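Hi, can you check this record?
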Amino acid sequence: MENQLQMLIRPLWIELPMCVLRQGHGCKMLFPILNMHAYLKHIAAGMFIVLLCTGCSTKRNTPATRAWHELTTRYNIYFNAEEAYNEALKSITESHIDNYQTWLPMYPNSADPNDTVVKQPGGPFDRVVEKMTTAIQEHSITAKPRRDPAQPNTQEYRDWLRQNEFNPFIDRAWLLMGKAHVQNKDYTEAISVLSYTVRLFAYDIDVVSEAQIWMMRAYTEMGWFSDAEGLALTLQVRRLPKDLHDKFTEFYAFLLIRQEKYRDALPFLIQTVKSEKSGIQKRRLQFLLGQVYAHLGERENAYNAFEQIKKLSTPYDEVFNALVAQSQVATGDGEIIGELQKMAENKKNSAYLDRIYAAIGDVYLSRNNVEKAIENYLLAEEKSVRNGVEKALTQVTLGDIYFERKDFLKAEPRYSQALGALPRSSGNYARVEFRTDVLGELVPHMEVLARQDSLRQLAVQPDESDKIIEGELFRIGSIAKDRLGDFEFAVEVYNRHLTDFPESIRRKEVYHQLYQLYLRMGNRAMAKSL
């Protein structure tokens, strides 16, 4: 009878887009009506179904009610919820803008591990959650059926009688609800739903496995790696259907990457790239694979991984980013720099000039040609039209070079400008924030010092300039020692103070500061010589 029902009802749900709602004895049934011809075609089947569904309450557990509630769940509520789920995921994937100068996330809607903002419940998958809640509330059958005397008293039949759910499709509703919570980043709720699913359908190993696989994703997103690892160990020894095995492989790669176990993640990530069907997601994963190879120092494999992106019906901007990434792992300097310079001359790349010059600078810097690196970083800074993260990263690199050279007057504006555009999750953020703060205090004194040095050379009010210079040298030395932690620079400044102003009233204090500095630098001989 169930097969007959399915053959009759399925066309009603999936062939026609318009419908009216009718009710009978507490049951809801959708009768699509596109035109009179379609209506007449299905009227006989509809009448049969209405008669068959008399008394189809979930409190009754008969073959007819089970078939009714399964089909209603499958072809009405679940079908629409799954469509909503896929549309929401597609929208997120297509609208996401990746930053190719940092690690790409495996998923565009992954939680940011460094985000301290408390996430409010809900999101783009709320409609899916609502529909699955409705499906469970209105179509879950928990009432026990009457024992059928005609059924042999087998273990299989006894197990079936003992189960807690008799709508054969409700397991899919629970699973889709759990997945929707994961996609909404409501991980605690997702784990609650999926854990309950494991308990409710403990007799179905495939349902249990799918729920545990998505729990592993949720635990990973939350940073609960030991819980995720525990599930992974359980799932690894279980024989899984191909679709679940592929999903486990994908989420296990995600877990290992989040733990920065890049070498261990490689085989799982490679397999995930091969099995991924979505073009956008496949390209993202392929780029991530190249990044993993590059991080591990496997430059040739990284180069080849980025090369593969060009063969995946890739939009130009992604091809460009793959070329830039290749420039950072290429072994032949002249060849790759020449290719990048040709790209810079192409008018098609006018919007990417900052990225191109930054990539050239990276190549020179990796080969310790610092002057050529600075030259190209300055061009990248000048050509930037977006003033976003990409420009900020170039400014941080320039700031670092100037900082190492103790050219703090040039380093400070790079750091301060970059700080406003850097996300807090950036690995550079804390360092840039500290240097911005300290140099913000130091640089004004250095600017006064430079200005007074110029005035003294011009013999304009030399006595007044000397007084200001002496004070600024002492202040600069103190900041360099106590805040910047640059002992060598502090020693240099204090020694100039002693040389230029041997009669200063701060002379004893300067000697004391130098004594402390030499001791902290481990130079006891110089400390004793003072």
Summary: Strands lie at 19-24, 27-32. The chain has 24 helices and two strands. The first helix runs from residue 2 to 14.
